[in-house]
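1st attempt posting a full record on here, be nice pls
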Amino acid sequence: MLLPLFEWLDTFRVGDWISTSSWAAPVVNVMHIVALVFVIGSLLIVDVRLLGRGMTHQPVATVARDARPWLIAALICMLLTGFPQLLSLPIRQYYSPFFWMKMRLLLVALIFTFTLRHKVTMADEARVGPVWGKVVGLVSIALWTLVAVEGRFIGLFS
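the predicted structure (as tokens):
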């Protein structure tokens, strides 16, 4: 169903340039990985706090509010660097099961992060209770770890 879209993306000359350039693909990849580090860092600082560790002297809502701009900026950077990566080899990505698993997991992780996780982090800690905070923190860590692992599998096995 999406193959025509990927075939159309394959006609873009910028994708050919990225895949054949001696420096473009490495620069885009490094920027993508740096953005991933910021995504994981901004998530982990909040998730570790949800687990009852880390910055325990601050409320979860404060930690989450302070980390949110970093998370959003890093996600935007990942989108801006992920698209050129896709353009460099769109047909290969289309046939990669790891690419599609990453996209599915990414969608679930984004929905989870900006709905349930956001609601739990902004709620009164006494009202949420320690168990739900820990569950949400663990699920968040698991989802984003799987997104990163699937992304790495794209490069290794596709």
